């Protein structure tokens, strides 16, 4: 039959990514142009710098995505694009490029929520069954999401301050790790031991909300106090202790949410879902406490921002007749 090819655009933060996805589950191409090096010296993403990079990269990424997938515009079924949440100037580049392609080639335009995109990275691993729960952990978000059916998302709990990835990046900075710090801290954590007793905020709180700013402050104080006393702390142990605290809270809240809202599947997704400590812990917990719930972990390579996940989510939205018109705008504060 007809090939169902979605051309997907992602530009919400610091990666310009364009992908071609077939039938929502086969990645024909997934070009990712990262700008991390340009943001490193600022210690985080500078919105103006991000927008400029997206403009410079988008045409090249588009050409590469099509040629690597070995398709032409005439082969495409639809164009999907992230329209929020994210940085407004960054989002606008992807939205504008997607609109231009859709308009010029008479293709339907499919609006995709970036966070839904992260969840759909899991669809490259397994079919989705509902109800479903997602633990979404990224640089900007930390959420437990209940998904009653396709496209029906309800946030059960979210962070009240820093996102998990943001906490990694901020404590990483104190240890001299450049942005983004998550992967390095994760590696150090595996070489150290949980010897510092950092707080586990809201672990016993009845809500499904999270808080990481207390942990971050406690970590920074510990390091600064040691510096003042001219004591050098073991960075691997610091990393292991920090990570244990983050993982404990994420796992505990997920466990309780699953007790209260039983689901067929749990999807672990977002940039921080690449964390090996978190993956191991959730895998073990699910096996021991929720054997009836299938765990779907987004592939490590697709945890960070990429357009393939937008293509997967866009495919489902397309089937549900979701369409945007030429007045589609970026929605930086978009929620589910
Ligand atoms: O989803 P993502 O690529 O961008 C956002 O939408 O935010 O997530 C990026 C975040 C960064 O904060 C980065 O430090 C974190 O994910 N991260 C990790 C790991 N790999 C990336 N955090 C912990 N452990 C990792 N292995
Ligand atoms: Zn993201």
TrEMBL record:
Coiled-coil portions: none
Keyword tRNA processing among record annotations: yes
Protein's GO biological process: tRNA threonylcarbamoyladenosine modification
UniProt keywords, alphabetically: Acyltransferase, Cytoplasm, Iron, Metal-binding, Transferase, tRNA processing
Enzyme class: transferase
Cofactor note: Binds 1 Fe(2+) ion per subunit.
Transmembrane segments: none
Domain Gcp-like, chain residue ranges per copy: 26-311
EC number(s) from the headed UniProt entry: 2.3.1.234
Any one Gene Ontology molecular-function term assigned to this protein's record: tRNA N(6)-L-threonylcarbamoyladenine synthase activity
Reaction catalysis annotation: L-threonylcarbamoyladenylate + adenosine(37) in tRNA = N(6)-L-threonylcarbamoyladenosine(37) in tRNA + AMP + H(+)
Binding site for Fe cation: 114, 118, 305
Gene3D superfamilies with a match to the protein in the record: 3.30.420.40
GO cellular component: cytoplasm
Localization of this protein: Cytoplasm
Cofactor: Fe(2+)
Matching Pfam families: TsaD
Residues binding substrate: 136-140, 169, 182, 186, 275
Function: Required for the formation of a threonylcarbamoyl group on adenosine at position 37 (t(6)A37) in tRNAs that read codons beginning with adenine. Is involved in the transfer of the threonylcarbamoyl moiety of threonylcarbamoyl-AMP (TC-AMP) to the N6 group of A37, together with TsaE and TsaB. TsaD likely plays a direct catalytic role in this reaction.
PANTHER family: TRNA N6-ADENOSINE THREONYLCARBAMOYLTRANSFERASE, TRNA N6-ADENOSINE THREONYLCARBAMOYLTRANSFERASE, MITOCHONDRIAL
NCBIfam families assigned: gcp_kae1, T6A_TsaD_YgjD
Family (UniProt): Belongs to the KAE1 / TsaD family.
Annotated protein name in UniProt: tRNA N6-adenosine threonylcarbamoyltransferase
Record lineage: Bacteria, Bacillati, Bacillota, Bacilli, Lactobacillales
